[in-house]
Design a protein that fits this description.
The protein is mainly α and 259 residues long. Helix content is 73%, strand content 8%. Strands 1-4 form a two-stranded parallel sheet. A two-stranded antiparallel ribbon has the order 2-3.
Length: 259
Amino acid sequence: MTQTSNLRESLTELHVLQTIDEEINRLTEARRELVRRAKAADLELKKHQATLDAKKKAHTDAQVAHRTKSVQLTADQEKLKTHEDRLSKASDASEYTALQKQIETSTRLIGEAEEAAIELMLAIDETKEALDAVTVTFQAFENDYKAIRRDLADQAKEIDGELKQCNAARNAQAKIVNAEWTKNYDQWRERRQITLVSMVQTHVARERSGKVITFNCGECHMTIPTQMMAEAREFAKTHRCPSCHRVLLATDVDAESDE
């Protein structure tokens, strides 16, 4: 096998490996995005749950406060009845006067307790109305949340399957790539976090003067000089893009495209 065919084959095999890695990176990022969306949905559900819990607490607190006030009102009413019973049996003027004051105090307290009880009953109605509204909103979001989580789980399962296939393909491809080129590729990726091999793009335009062919780096899209492209097609040695410095993988002009 000639040096030309050796280099062409090595770059082609490496480009295939690189393409698989790009797809693995894309799928991995898509998987991460699903996790981020799931966490965002979980957080939104917690916010809705916190709002619902707050409304439930407000309604419960109003009910407890009303029961407490009702107990107090009953106690004040019993005290008033006791004072009124004792008033008819007062033995002297001082006792009568003292009981009248107690009756006045109990009557005032009962009036205040009744007003507070009415306000608390209104609060119960208001908090119940607010709770019902929030409950409807929560249930609607919860249904959407469950659908979102199911959809995300289905997408994750699909991506996991694709990743499994890509990793299997990568393992198979890695076995046939030239070891030296694999080393160069790994070092390049570690330093720059970008692809190493660029498939040159060929563009053919029809003009009055005739057919005009231009070449561009497949990664950074910088124009490749015609002379460099001619030399790159010989595969006598590697040529790099003048802009991004990736190794150029030149192809023959056999699939022309009109611009």
